[in-house]
């Protein structure tokens, strides 16, 4: 296995987590998140003790709860298996309930529950006695779930199998069960952690069906953990957030990371009173008093999702468009403090979904008609005005455009947060929440609007419809990139000809970007399906790896965005955009709530050839005296190909187009020109770009160093020294390799 491959250790073929209940406290002074997580488990069809390391299985993992016969949502979805990386850190051997530590032997006959986990301090693992929950004992346990030898298991199975119409009762029972005491006089749960996993056993239990179904894990995060980022916002105030780490959430809580392990969750998070907790939750949470100096926030989701989509951000954010942004305890006067109570009518009964049973908005006529879902925008104080003036007005327009193209919004509400400057991307979408870089707030509204459209598109492609194999990220990013243009032209209310011209211009820009990336990146990172015919295969236990996931260059590559986009553009050109978008809506209706593989033979050459011959001719029609941001980017890219530009030309460009006031895409090309032609008067622009647009400036460091100009190299080193402590870890390692 390559050192850049990410192991997925969870044995999801043996046992699935169906629901998580998190009870956490955020400690800013210590920079840790601590508390407990309770896992509600259900055995899979593969019930052997432990899978062989190298065996491969195409056997679907069938949930025991209700699943539509139309689609098996639990098929294996991760790439080909390899032997996992040996531990590089000392193992931790502990016993639950203060039992003495013992050597952890792989030869044990006991069943082992394996969870994805790293950089967590686990202090205790407990088996819960849910038979003490009075409300749970009132439920009828039918013969299907009855287990006289393990009554607690029967009760948990009854809860996880409750129909979606009872989800409120189900969630209340989950909470009550999570507070249960440990099983009296039972064998303690022993556990062991290595670099990538947490392993749990109960002595004498040799099969998944006999393993405890409700397990509580007490733990704390570590400052070295890569799932969350402890930093300061643009006003110098402490904050923490999940930043889309390559290791996902395994350093935030023990979990099953393969996408097949789709689960629901509830979270109760305590934070200091002057902090706001935002999370990927269906509900809009309002704080309640907790211990002295803390408030408590509660979120939940009802749509089963991979654990990697869980997102949290805690900081002193302010809400745009609110006169008094400080939240009040038990605040109830907000117009969206509760989700509209949508109920099924007779027409809804005729709409049949193909996914597992959950409360689905696609089945509700009122939700299908809702063009704009409830939404909020948050930002640090210094960016609040820009968020209010730009993001807040654009958001309903983008939501309306998306609804007009794809139909019902899969999620009932949306929060948007302007994240700290060290965020390494322009945006990131999670259920019910979108992170935006501060780089989209400058210049005209084009970059902000297009990025909002891109992230909103992920609600359908990437979240409601996910890839069964993480290496097929083009399914998410290619669709979102294509739909970004469609949504944005709707927002702009462009005519057919204007919309077509704008799409051709963006296609040309992307073609140039893709061509450059194909020439300057490792070939193995350019492949859309690196596992080829083995895509979607896993080991007998469900363990596998994600190829290239830990390569520090991968987060900054756009090949999966661009190749996927060009494939879709090629198909649209063949059938016509109107028919193609009609197909999108049908596709979403059929596959939402499910995981898919591409099953498509990709040929980017053919896609590019379909339009590249006409690209330069089309560009001639686009050039006007007043240039749009996209046209200005293309103009600067053409100028970057010129071997020499005079000082007067550079000055004329700067003054004519007011380049310092343009959006980040334009400023990036302007900085490249300044570096290439050693335009010292613009070095201040380069410095400001590297400091304030960290999501886009990584490779500009390389251009500063390759010129072998002492002043430019000093500029690169000075900028890195200024922002290093707040910089994304992956980006920082790439830059350090360039300049040291």
From TrEMBL:
Pfam family for this entry, one: Leuk-A4-hydro_C
GO terms for MF: metalloaminopeptidase activity; zinc ion binding
The protein's name: Aminopeptidase O (putative)
Organism listed in the record: Cyprinus carpio
Polar residues bias locations: 51-68
Superkingdom of origin organism: Eukaryota
Keyword Hydrolase: yes
Cofactor(s) required, per the database record: Zn(2+)
GO terms (BP aspect): proteolysis
GO cellular component: nucleolus
Peptidase M1 leukotriene A4 hydrolase/aminopeptidase C-terminal domain segment(s): 601-739
UniProt record similarity statement: Belongs to the peptidase M1 family.
Ranges of compositional bias, category Basic and acidic residues: 82-91
Disordered: annotated segments: 51-93
Keywords assigned by UniProt, alphabetized: Hydrolase, Metal-binding, Metalloprotease, Protease, Zinc
SMART domains (UniProt xref): Leuk-A4-hydro_C
Record lineage: Eukaryota, Metazoa, Chordata, Craniata, Vertebrata
């Amino acid at each position: 296995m390559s050192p850049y491959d990410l192991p997925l250790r969870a044995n999801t073929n043996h046992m699935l987590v169906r629901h998580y209940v998190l009870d956490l406290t955020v400690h800013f002074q210590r920079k840790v998140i601590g508390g407990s997580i309770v896992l509600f488990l259900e055995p899979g069809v593969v019930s052997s003790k432990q899978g062989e390391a190298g065996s491969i299985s195409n056997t679907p993992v069938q949930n025991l709860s209700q699943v539509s016969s139309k689609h098996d949502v639990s098929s294996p979805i991760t790439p080909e298996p390899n032997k996992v990386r040996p531990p590089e850190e000392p193992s931790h051997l502990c016993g639950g309930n203060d039992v003495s530590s013992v050597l952890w032997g792989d030869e044990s006959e006991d069943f082992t529950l394996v969870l994805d986990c790293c950089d967590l301090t686990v202090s205790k693992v407990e088996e819960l006695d849910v038979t003490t929950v009075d409300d749970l004992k009132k439920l009828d346990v039918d013969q299907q779930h009855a287990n006289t030898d393990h009554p607690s298991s029967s009760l948990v199975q009854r809860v996880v199998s409750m129909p979606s119409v009872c989800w409120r009762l189900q969630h209340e029972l989950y909470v009550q069960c999570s507070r249960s005491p440990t099983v009296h006089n039972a064998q303690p749960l022993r556990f062991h952690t290595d670099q990538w996993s947490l392993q749990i056993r109960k002595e004498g239990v040799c099969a998944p069906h006999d393993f405890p179904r409700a397990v509580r894990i007490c733990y704390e995060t570590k400052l070295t953990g890569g799932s969350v980022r402890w930093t300061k916002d643009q006003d110098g105030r402490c904050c923490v957030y999940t930043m889309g780490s390559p290791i996902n959430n395994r350093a935030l809580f023990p979990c099953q990371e393969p996408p097949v392990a789709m689960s629901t969750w509830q979270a109760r998070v305590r934070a200091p009173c002057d902090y706001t907790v935002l999370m990927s939750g269906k509900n809009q949470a309002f704080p309640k008093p907790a211990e002295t100096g803390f408030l408590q926030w509660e979120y939940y989701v009802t749509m089963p999702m991979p654990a990697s989509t869980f997102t949290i951000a805690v900081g002193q954010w302010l809400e745009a468009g609110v006169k008094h942004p400080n939240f009040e305890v038990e605040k109830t006067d907000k117009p969206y403090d509760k989700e509209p109570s949508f109920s099924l009518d007779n027409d809804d009964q005729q709409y049949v979904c193909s996914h597992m049973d959950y409360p689905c908005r696609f089945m509700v006529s009122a939700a299908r008609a809702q063009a704009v879902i409830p939404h909020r925008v948050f930002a640090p104080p210094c960016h609040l005005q820009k968020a209010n003036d730009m993001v807040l007005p654009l958001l309903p327009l983008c939501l309306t455009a998306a609804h007009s193209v794809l139909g019902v919004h899969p999620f009932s509400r949306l929060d948007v947060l302007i994240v700290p400057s060290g965020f390494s991307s322009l945006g990131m979408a999670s259920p019910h929440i979108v992170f935006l870089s501060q780089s989209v707030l400058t210049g005209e509204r084009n970059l902000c609007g297009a990025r909002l459209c891109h992230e909103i598109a992920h609600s359908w492609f990437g979240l409601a419809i996910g890839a069964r194999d993480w290496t097929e990220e083009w399914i998410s990013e290619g669709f979102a990139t294509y739909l970004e243009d469609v949504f944005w032209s709707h927002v702009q209310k462009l005519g057919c000809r204007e919309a077509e011209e704008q799409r051709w211009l963006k296609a040309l820009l992307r073609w140039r970007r893709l061509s450059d990336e194909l020439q300057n990146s490792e070939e193995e990172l350019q492949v859309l399906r690196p596992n080829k015919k083995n895509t979607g295969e896993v080991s007998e236990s469900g363990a596998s790896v994600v190829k290239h996931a830990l390569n520090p260059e991968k987060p900054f590559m756009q090949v999966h965005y661009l190749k996927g986009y060009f494939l879709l553009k090629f198909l649209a050109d063949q059938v016509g955009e109107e028919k193609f978008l009609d197909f999108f809506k049908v596709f979403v209706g059929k596959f939402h709530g499910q995981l898919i593989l591409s099953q498509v033979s990709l040929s980017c050459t053919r896609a590019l050839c379909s339009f590249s011959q006409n690209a330069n001719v089309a560009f001639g029609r686009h050039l006007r005296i007043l240039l749009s941001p996209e046209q200005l980017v293309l103009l600067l890219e053409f100028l970057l190909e010129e071997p020499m530009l005079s000082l007067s030309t550079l000055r004329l460009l700067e003054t004519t187009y007011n380049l310092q006031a343009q959006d980040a895409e334009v400023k990036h090309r302007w900085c490249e020109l300044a570096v290439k032609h050693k335009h010292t008067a613009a070095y201040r622009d380069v410095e400001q770009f590297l400091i304030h647009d960290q999501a886009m400036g990584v490779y500009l460091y390389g251009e500063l160093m390759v010129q072998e100009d002492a002043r430019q190299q000093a500029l690169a080193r000075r900028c890195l020294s200024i922002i290093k402590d707040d910089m994304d870890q992956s980006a920082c390692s790439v830059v350090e390799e360039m300049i040291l």
